[in-house]
Each structure stands twice: as C-alpha cells, then as structure tokens.
Amino acid sequence: MTLAEKIGQMNQLNFDQINKDLEEKIKKGEIGSLLNVTNAEEVNQLQQVALQQSRLGIPLIIGRDVIHGLHTIFPIPLGQAASFDDELVKNAAHIAAVESREKGINWTFAPMLDISRDARWGRIAESLGEDPYLAGRLGAAMVRGFQGNKLSDATSIAACLKHFAGYGAAEGGRDYNSTNIPIHLLRNVYLEPFRKSVEAGAATVMTSFNDNDGIPASGNGFLLKQVLRKEWNFDGFVVSDWASMSEMISHGFAADRKEVASLSANAGLDMEMVSQTYIQNLEQLVKEGKVPVQVIDELVKNILRIKIRMGLFENPFAPTGPGKTYSQAHLNAAREAAVKSAVLLKNNNQLLPLDVRKKIAVIGPMADAPHDQMGTWVFDGQKEYTVTPLKALQTEYKHINYVYEQALAFSRDKNKANFEKAVNTAKQADVVVVFLGEESILSGEAHSLSNINLIGVQSDLLAALKATNKPVVLVTMAGRPLTIERDLPNADAVLYNFHPGTMGGPAIWDLLFGKANPSGKLPVTFVREVGQIPMYYNHNNTGRPGPKNPMKLDDIPLEAKQSSLGNSSFYLDSGRDPLFPFGYGLSYSSFEYKDLKLSATKIKPGEKMKVSATLTNTGKYEGTEIAQLYVRDMVGSIARPVKELKGYQKISLKPGETKLVTFELSSDDLAFYGLDLVKKAENGMFNVWVGGSSDSGLKGSFSLEQ
Ligand code: GLC
C-alpha cells in the first residue's frame, strides 16, 4: 500500500448521493468507509467501484446508527435495559443486524454504553442506564446479537462501543459539555461496560465528544492506547465521533487541523468520521516526522483486520431477493421486548389488570403518535408500521369497548381547548387510560432539558381527568425518567414505558388487560425534583448520610436559630431519597424472599460462594420477578458505594410457587480499582442483599480474608 492508500482507509465520509466525485475518491483509494448509505443497490454499486476500479480493491465498510432496530423498531435502549433480559436484548440486536445487512449496512454505531446518572441529558434515552454491571451485561449481549457467532456471517454486522469515554457525565446534563470524572470513578464505573463489551469481542469503538479533565477523547492516548490496547488487548479499530476530531480546535486542545491529525493519530485513533483532517494532513505530517509511518501502519492494520474478519473481501455486497424486514417474527419480537421493557410503578387497589368488559376512555397525545412512539435515533423506522395503542384497539383489540379523545395534539401542546371534551369522554367510561409523555425529538442527541416534568399542560390534563373521580391509569412514553411526583396523586396506576417502538401499542394493552404481567425494573433512578440530580443508587455513603425521614421544610420553626439543620446530607424540600429507586418495579403478582443463605461467611481470594434465597409468588397471577444481588464493601482503600449490583436473574413463578434463587459470588466480583489503582478485591467485611429492588432485600454479611 502507498502512504496515500493507507491514509485513505482511515477516512470515513458521510453519504448523500452517488456522483462522479465520490466514485473518483473511491477509485483513488481515498475512502475506507461511508456512513448512511441505506439503499442496497447503491451499496453494491459503490462496492463494485471499490473492488474493481481501485488499485487495491479494498471494500468499503458501511456504517449506520442502528441503535434499537433498523426498520422494526424495538424499545429505546433505556427501555430494553428495564427488561434486565440479556437474551431479549441480544435477539433485538440480531434482528437489527438481519435487517441492516439486507440494506448493505455492515456496521452499526451501537451499543451506546455511556453510564447515565442525569435525566436532563437527552442521550440517557440511548443508554443502558446508571449501573455499570447492568450496562456491561446488556452491552455485551448487544455485541453478541449484532456480531453473531462470526463477524463474517451473512447476518452479522460490526458493533461499535460508544462513546468512549465518560460522555454521560456531561456537566449539568447538557450534551457535549465537559466531564470531570476522576480516575477511580472512571475505572470503576464509566469504563466497566466498555471493558465487558470489548471482552465480548466488539469489533470497533467510537470516541466521545467530551473533554474529560480537559482532554478530548479523540486525542486521549491514555484511553486509546493504555486502556483499550495495552490493558484490554482490543484488536479492532477506533472511529471518531462526527467531527469530534476537528472539534479539538474548538476545545482549545489543537491549534489547527494539522495538529488535530497529529494529536489523534499519535493518540491511536484509527478512522476519522467526516472531518477529513487525516486525508488532508497526514502525508505531510509523516514527511515532517511528526507522525511516524509506523503509527500509520498500526492504525490501518486495525481497520484492515476488521474488514478481513468481516469477510468484506469475499462478499461486501447486500444480498438480493426477499428479506425479513418487518416480518411477523420481527414484529412479534419487538412486541415481546416492549412488554418486558415496561415498568409498573403504581397500581393502587389492584386497578390493573383491567377487565376487558369495562368501557375505557382512551385519552392523550401519546395514544396515537406513530412517529413519536418509536423514540429517538430512528432513521429508517416507518411510522406506517407503528401500531399505536389506538390502532391496536381498532385491530387486534377491537373487542374492547372504548371512547377516544386526543385532548392534546402533541406533548408540547399548550392548548386546553379540548380538555372539556376529554373530561366528558372520561365521564362516559368506567376507567380512564391516559397516554402522556414526550415527543421523540425531546430526547436524544443535543436534546437536554432543564425541566423534566411532563411537558406542556399534560399534568393539567391528568388532573382534570382525575377530577371526574373515575379510576385513572397513566401510561407514559418517554425518553427519560420524568419527574412525575406531582402527577402520582392523579393516577391510580402508572405503567411507565420508555418509547416502546413499533409494537408498543399492542404490548401496552397486553399488559393493561393482563395477557402479560409487567416485569420490568428501573435501570435508572427516578428523582422527585430535577434539583436532586445527580442521584443514583450506587453512591458513596459520605461522612453524614442523610436520614431516612428527614425533617419537613414546613416543620422548621420560624426564626430558627443558626444551626446545621439535620447535620446530614439531604434536601430541606425533597429529602434524601428518589421517587423510585434503581431496580424498582411492580407486578400484578407479589413476591416474597425468604431464607437468605450464604454458603460461607468467609472466603479467600480466588474462592467463590453461593448466595441463595427462596422466592415465592404470593399473588394470584403468574409472573416474573427480576431477583437482584447487591453487595457493599464496608471498608476500602477508597470509600466504596453503599450498594453495587453484582447479579440479576429472571424467575417466573406460578401463583403460590416457590423456587430457590441462587447467585454465585467470587472474590473477582468484589475487585475494584483502589487507592493504588490496581484492580483487586480488598480484605474485609461485606454486606450482601438479595431482593427485588436496590432499596430492599434480605441482608447478610461475609468477609474476604487472605
Ligand atoms: C452522532 C452521534 C454518534 C453517532 C454519529 C454518527 O453525532 O454522537 O452517536 O453514531 O454521530 O451518526
């Protein structure tokens, strides 16, 4: 390869149309990858040019953001995370890969593994939530789903772990903002899902927009060489995010485009997404000795290694003939995913499941929102295929006796003119089901909010409907955990959906009418007020942990003398605790954990122990419980979180049935980066819990001793 051809492989352009200029660049070997080609015929035409008209005949790698489905749209990743279901998430990714390959797309920019502890950040929607263990397991499952058994399989696409790293800690929850993650937190929390997904064999990684501690990821040699290559032995390739390289000028980290190319190449960034500093400067930088040719060789080898592993040299073409896009099997899988991604937050007096003989008032802007129901990061999902709750009532659920009033045209709509109609509609029914939430554009990239209440006048609509004294079910479709504390008194039951995708409509009725029993658990904390953010379950204890029941603001006496009220960490107005904690979710059943047993009260490094409990379905419906295992390292060389998720499993039980739930815990599971930044488990006492949420469970303790 000439130096120019090597550099050409490192250059990725965005596709808008096939033209002479693009074909010329491919012929000259100036392009290694294109993103956003979505037409199979165009892909095949471009691959033909690359294979037959360029000197070396190196095929293109074609990328696209296939985040939660290409055409058949699954719940947004935050919703899929609520399923705590590795197999379900893997299958969703596999189906996305099948539909992608039919269009000639062989690389997706997913899974997004950014730990997200801030619901103001719009990209929490794409994340797998706040916990590194959950995000690690589900991220690895997505990699396996996208990549199949072999990268060269006909239905495999290369995965891309993003955004490396720490992007979810954007200050203030404002997208693209700086992050200030100290090294222990970086290693113990933010890097962990990436490590697990590299271990699962991910082919590529994408650098993030943020500067962490002043260093933009696209120029961060510590992340790209020390962590990714030396420690994790990653042998795939790294692509920058969209212009994240040239944005290092805006960061004030590079003086000009030439320095951008030098910084990124020397930091170990293999492929440049769209900003073209490599193709325009690297040859000169090599001549000037600022970038050794050996560096270029390493970067190109990483890219070619993946192209070879993907089998692109043998077959880079989109298949012809009928595909499986929108097949019934795909739609059924999307429906199952939506069922298992919903979280039941409230169900007073067992209002749910509803009796199918009841007359139902269906109200609200999200009851028939085929575009918005799919959620953010949907380029190719066609809203004509979306089955909304209303559409489901007009088709599969047409036996249900219902009346419908949209009331608001969209979630931001502030026009109350139809409230009276909505109230009158509610009065005609036995029960009111209100569909509220967010339009899809209100979450996702660059869509941060400083107020995360139900937007517009949706809360007023809910209150007006509750005033009819009819039983009210609130069903949400949102891209984030909204602050719904003020809405709870106006809903007897709450079924929370993170944008449920193409088949969200029938899935919601399956749940509301009891054909399915809710099993989802929250992958992210629901705060009471946006002012509580950041609030997450796996926090440190602090020297003055807040009290369970702190004083009430209005209980503070007038002219109270100067004092440190409460002397501990809480808010005078919203206390210490969230509205709903990580891991929380109700069922139509009830589950009882009993008889916690530890196979040992003391283990040595390298040893394992078993933690078990019995789990009984004490309710009258068959149901599935997501049993969770948490530990707390009581004393460490650095302060340790009050709880850390170390296991979960889904247990299905018939009414009255009891099963033994057993987790295996090894000393490796207790390892963390301590004061000396060496990853190891430290001796001492540990607490352990088995339960159905991060704020409950049977508690035991054990020690780790040399
Ligand atoms: C965007 C996103 C990234 C996406 C890329 C390509 O800016 O940050 O997640 O994969 O550009 O669309």
Summarize the structure.
This protein folds into five domains: 12-58, no CATH class; 66-309, TIM Barrel; 328-512, Glycoside hydrolase family 3 C-terminal domain (Rossmann fold, 3-Layer(aba) Sandwich), CATH 3.40.50.1700; 541-577, no CATH class; 591-704, Immunoglobulins (Immunoglobulin-like), CATH 2.60.40.10.
Give a description of the structure.
With 706 residues, the chain is α/β, with parallel strands linked by helices. It folds into five domains: 12-58, no CATH class; 66-309, TIM Barrel (Alpha-Beta Barrel), CATH 3.20.20; 328-512, Glycoside hydrolase family 3 C-terminal domain (Rossmann fold), CATH 3.40.50.1700; 541-577, no CATH class; 591-704, Sandwich (Immunoglobulin-like). The protein contains 18 helices and 26 strands. α11 packs across α12 (277-287) and α14 crosses α18. The radius of gyration is 26 Å and the shape is globular. The N and C termini lie far apart (55 Å). The site of alpha-D-glucopyranose has 6 residues, from loops.
Question: How does the helix and strand content classify structurally?
Answer: alpha/beta
Q: What is the CATH topology descriptor of the largest domain?
A: TIM Barrel
Number of strands: 26
CATH superfamily of the largest domain: Glycoside hydrolase, family 3, N-terminal domain
Task: Kindly estimate the percentage of residues that lie in beta strands according to DSSP.
Answer: 15-25%
Quaternary structure type: single chain
The gyration radius over C-alpha positions equals 26 Å
Strand order of the largest sheet: 11-16-15-14-12-13
Q: How would a textbook summarize the main sheet?
A: 6 strands, mixed
The percent of residues in helical segments reads: 25-40%
CATH architecture of the largest domain: Alpha-Beta Barrel
Ions, cofactors and other ligands present here are: alpha-D-glucopyranose
| Number of domain modules | 5
Number of helices: 18
Instruction: State the CATH class of the largest domain.
Output: Alpha Beta
Intertermini distance? 55 Å
